[in-house]
Amino acid sequence: MTVEDAFAIRNRGVVVTGKVARGTLRIGDTVRINGGPGLTVDAIEKFRKQCDEVTEGEDVGVLFKGIERRDINRGDVLTSSGETPPIEGTTVIV
């Protein structure tokens, strides 16, 4: 998931928004920002509705606790803990 926007909610954490590019995302999953340390997904919302799970193609907001707003920016990539983020400027030939 590529981060479209990020904002802090006082006493809750940091919310990032974007579209799930591939796979499934669930509350409790561990994700990495640009391949960094793992973060736990604390909540997921889709169109102001709480969800336990979202799949590829869905626009979502994901809540993280324990990080600061300055730690994540537009364009950052969230990946599952086992994936490596794409390298910018490279072309994939299939």
From TrEMBL:
Residues making up the signal peptide according to the UniProt record: none
Pfam families, per the entry: GTP_EFTU_D2 (PF03144)
Organism listed in the record: Mycobacterium deserti
Name of the protein in question: EF-Tu/IF-2/RF-3 family GTPase
PANTHER family hit by this protein: ELONGATION FACTOR TU, MITOCHONDRIAL (PTHR43721:SF22), ELONGATION FACTOR TU-RELATED (PTHR43721)
Classification via Gene3D superfamilies: Translation factors
Superkingdom, natural source: Bacteria
Domain Translation elongation factor EFTu-like: 13-79
